Amino acid sequence: MSQPIRLMRGFATVGSWTLLSRVLGFVRDVLIAGFLGAGPVAEAFLIAFSLPNMFRRFFAEGAFNMAFVPMFSKKLEAGEGAKEFAEDAFAGLGTILIVFTLLATIFMPYLVLAMASGFVADERFELAVLFGRIAFPYILFISLAALLSGVLNASGRFIAAAAAPVLLNILFIAALSGAWWLGLDLGRTLAWTVPVAGLAQLWLVWTAAARAGYRLVPKRPQMTPEMKRLAIIAAPAALAGGVVQVNLLVGRQVASYFDGAVAWLNYADRLYQLPLGVVAIAIGVVLLPDLSRKLQNGDAAGGQEAFNRAGELALALTVPCAVALMVIPTPLISVLFERGQFGPDDSAATAVAVAVYGLGLPAFVLQKVFQPLFFAREDTKRPFYFALVALVVNAVIAIGLAPVVGYIAAALGTTLAGWAMGGLLWIYARRFGTAAEFDTRFRRSVPRIILASVLMGGVLYLLYLVLGGMFGMAGWRYLGLAVLLVAGGLSYALIGQALGAFRLRDIRAALRR
Predict the structure, then answer these.
(1) For residues 369 and 381, what is the distance between their CA atoms, to the nearest angstrom?
(2) Least packed by Cβ within 10 Å: which of 31, 102, 244, 401?
């Protein structure tokens, strides 16, 4: 029922599907920006949609899965009732979420108040409450889908789980386009699409899991010894997840007091989430079960190899993206989003946030590399303590600087909190022995990756100065951005190869294995 995990091929599989999902997510956000701009309906929907997504990371992809996947992987490796454990977890999580969804629907005004108190006495508040009640059942479907995805990933099957988010964006694009064509209410259409998309994703991964031998069906939950252990391990991770969500709340609260800032930060977030999602999700999905299996077998050398190659790949892909986000944020935003209700002022405000988020991109990805070292050992307490430190950093910067620098304080807080969390994970992970040590290849490659990225940034900056006039002409700006991206990618590949930061031949060979 399980198959070997091929690390690089797994990264490529998950990364490719995630890239497709993120590209379609861009199309979705471009449509929302074009039809709704940064107006009240757009901001109300974005807050409403963020509510189930916030708790989804808390329940499913965060606390629950970080505890569930290592336990399931070890049971799978040892042949000790993995399916029965998954069935009990499925029933327990489903029961909790049904109750939670009902309570959240009743108390939705208070949830919106907690997310965006700046909406009070404003039309955005009532709209956000309405959209939130429609969209919130998404958390039930997507959280159960996340658990099934964990089962598939731990079994070495990555395609269905990685492809599921593509459905969400396809349905959004179709619904939004259809509503505009038919003259329907765009806000309500978007809200109703959310739970429908969640149900579609659940159906896809449930079908794939059933075919893989894990046909999980609803049953009466029971507190077995394994479920008690799961709850004990998940509790600190849940608290850590809660701290992370408080960080998001702080940012949105600050943004809600500046007209348009919720939308600006959301569109900026979408742009930097493209490389972050593709790399970080791929690494988190593949590395955690792989490390769990290796540590179960006492393979410290294999764990070190997996950890180092994941970190090397993460930096090789994200450092140049971070540099590009900091060097050319304005053409990226203006070409991707500036149309319809989204004007030049919106582009300028969003571009500043993109540059700030770009500075934190490597930190967010490195967190996904270091965290599996803790979770594979069922250590969920330390990440919680580190998350508390990051929370303090974020709150002090976001709230303290808001009167001085405005909405951008939220982005600064997020970025610096990300570096604080990443630094603490790195410092403590060194105590885990061989599996957490950087090998010679990693120490040699990282400085060269950074140098190649900086030189690529210089190429991008000079080229943008030359092509700057093209971005003021509607018909030519797309060509200008394409030239920048192609030139940046080629220059990084050539410079990185020349410096020995990576070898394209080795990457191709690893993907074939």
Answers:
(1) 17
(2) 102
Cα separation, 20 vs 163, in Å, equals 9
- Cα–Cα nearest to 170, from 180, 159, 181, 178: 178
Residue matched to tokens 């309405």: 130
Distance CA 144, CA 91 (A): 9
The residues facing 342 across adjacent strands are 339
Residue with the bigger pLDDT between 64 and 205: it is: 205
Query: Exposed/middle/buried for 472, CB within 10 Å: 0-12, 13-18, 19+?
Result: exposed
User: Cα separation of 51 and 49, whole Å?
Assistant: 5
Task: Decide: 495 and 455 in contact? Cβ < 8 Å.
Answer: yes
What DSSP designation does 63 have? I
Do residues 187 and 44 lie in contact, with contact meaning Cβ atoms separated by under 8 Å? yes
Cα separation, 268 vs 69, in Å, equals: 31
Instruction: Please write the tens of the pLDDT for every residue from 440-481.
Output: 888 898 899 999 999 999 999 999 888 877 776 666 778 888
489-509 burial, b for 16+ CB within 10 Å, e for fewer? eebbbebbeeeebbeeeeeee
- Asked if 159 contacts 13 with a C-beta cutoff of 8 angstroms, the reply is yes
Contact partners, residue 239, CB within 8 Å, separation at least 6: 63, 384, 387
């190649």: which residue's tokens? 452
Residue 88 is predicted with a pLDDT of: 83
Owner of token pair 């969209």: 135
Secondary structure letter of residue 258 according to DSSP:
S
Q: Where are the alpha helices (DSSP H) in 155-281?
A: 159-182, 186-211, 225-256, 261-276
φ/ψ (deg, to 5) at 268 = -65, -40
Q: Which of 263-277, 353-367, 444-458 has the lowest mean pLDDT?
A: 263-277
Separation CA 305–CA 307 (nearest Å) = 6
- Distance CA(356)–CA(359), nearest Å, equals 5
DSSP-derived 3-state class of residue 84: helix
For the stretch 7-60, pLDDT in tens is: 556 566 666 777 777 778 778 877 877 777 767 888 888 888 888 877 776 665
User: Nearest Cα to 149, choosing from 98, 194, 209, 94?
Assistant: 209
Contact yes or no for 415/360 (Cβ under 8 A) = yes
In sequence order, the 6+-apart residues with CB closer than 8 A to the CB of 149 are 160, 161, 164, 205, 285
Is the C-alpha dihedral spanning 57, 195, 261, 334 positive or negative? positive
